[in-house]
Write a structure and sequence with these properties.
mainly alpha, about 425 residues, Growth Hormone, Chain: A
């Protein structure tokens, strides 16, 4: 019988592969299709916005399917197979690829990612047994998540292609094609999936139960959306900001390593703090800390790489809490709702995934569309366009994160 600690460890392993998708899809892909493929920031922003809107509407239904008809593990396997096909095509575009090529393949990749990730996240509520154990499972997953993000950063840097979005995508495709099957084999062999009673309730009834839980926990849902929206904007605009505002494109890989490395190192401290106070309070502290240090981004200019590095380290220290603690609170909500209404944890995690994608859609859609409206050009940006870029990157995330803190403050943990 595997030990509980080993189960917690092995549960987190697939997140290593899932996280490899984050950087290419949200950092490299928009830049690659806007510049290298030649679709422009406005066209890419519109295509990715609608792809994510279309995809996010599927997530609660995918969660319902995992509650009702399919084993969580087998649904993950289906998602992995679809991911191979669509991510390959997206990173190896045809010569005449246009907006619709990007749109349809993005929808395919996001759907595959949902099939892989939603049942995976829902598994944590099936196999975890207590309030603090939820944090350990979510922290294991997010630890490997950050390691996967670090690996996604290191590989392009190691192969000296970090400044080339297209070449970076190819390197990350090669890595995913190896790491995904290896991690899933380990997961399938060694993780003991708890026996659970599959949902026999109709889809209409499940969504009625889900609506009741959503109303009860609406502050967490809304804070989660606002916080993710705040994080999505700098992720989308990072390469533009470091190249055009700080004028240090060659340092992009190093800065991202600093950010995610700080997140990995700080994760145990946030877990300890959440046990001493509460998950909600620790999350509020992390958002407040990130907001304070990120405020100084507004004063950066050309050559301020040292100051940007310091800001990156301190904001990165909040990363561990920013992803592990909301995920643990989500597991608490899913377990509580399942006890009241029956098996709806997959549906709830599908809704959390929908909120994440909605926030990311707003991040890339709002950022790229506004830049397009001021005739932003990465090759020769006007002073007006640079000013708008700086406000989008530095000021808007602060407003959103502070709003998330205000909303979360009145949430009552149970």
């Amino acid at each position: 019988m595997p030990s509980p600690k080993f189960q917690i460890f092995i549960y987190g392993v697939p997140a290593l592969a899932i996280a490899l998708l984050g950087l290419p899809l949200y950092v490299y892909l928009p830049t690659f299709y806007a510049q290298d493929v030649g679709l422009g920031v406005f066209g890419v922003g519109i295509a990715l916005f609608f792809a994510r809107i279309f995809d996010m509407l599927n997530d609660p239904f995918i969660g319902y399917l995992s509650d009702t008809y399919m084993s969580r593990k087998w649904m993950m396997l289906l998602g992995a197979v679809l991911l191979y096909v669509t991510f390959y095509a997206l990173t190896h575009p045809l010569k005449e690829s246009g907006i619709f090529y990007l749109l349809f393949l993005s929808i395919g990749v996001y759907a595959a990612w949902s099939l892989l990730s939603i049942p995976y996240y829902a598994l944590s509520s099936d196999i975890s047994n207590s309030y603090h154990e939820n944090t350990h499972f979510s922290s294991s997953r997010e630890f490997f998540n950050i390691l996967g993000a670090l690996l996604a950063l290191v590989l392009p840097y190691y192969f000296h292609v970090a400044e080339d979005a297209g070449a970076s995508l190819l390197v990350l495709w090669d890595a995913l094609s190896i790491i995904l099957p290896v991690t899933l084999v380990l997961f399938f062999l060694f993780l003991k999936e708890s026996k659970r009673r599959k949902n026999s309730v109709s889809l209409v009834r499940v969504f009625q139960h889900f609506t009741l839980e959503m109303m009860e926990s609406k502050r967490v849902f809304f804070a989660f959306f606002l916080n993710n929206f705040a994080n999505a904007i700098p992720a989308t605009l990072f390469l533009f900001f470091i190249s055009l505002v700080v004028d240090a494109k060659d340092a992009s890989g190093m800065l991202l390593l600093l950010y995610f490395g700080s997140g990995v190192l700080s994760l145990p401290l946030w877990i300890l703090l959440s046990k001493k106070i509460s998950k909600k309070t620790a999350w509020l502290i992390s958002m407040g800390s990130a907001s304070f240090f990120f405020f100084f981004v507004l004063f950066l200019g050309k050559g301020d790489i040292v100051y940007f590095s310091i800001i990156t380290i301190f904001t990165g220290m909040s990363l561990g809490a920013d992803i592990a603690l909301p995920a643990s609170i989500q597991t608490d909500i899913a377990q509580r709702a399942t006890k009241k209404y029956g098996e709806i944890s997959g549906t709830l995690f599908g809704f959390f995934a929908m909120l994440t994608k909605l926030s990311l859609a707003f991040g890339v859609g709002v950022s790229f569309v506004i830049l397009g409206l001021v005739d932003f050009s990465a090759e020769a940006p006007s002073p007006k366009a640079l000013f708008v870029l700086k406000l989008l990157y530095g000021a808007l995330p602060l407003l959103l994160k502070l709003s998330a803190m205000i909303v979360l403050r009145k949430y009552q943990e149970k």
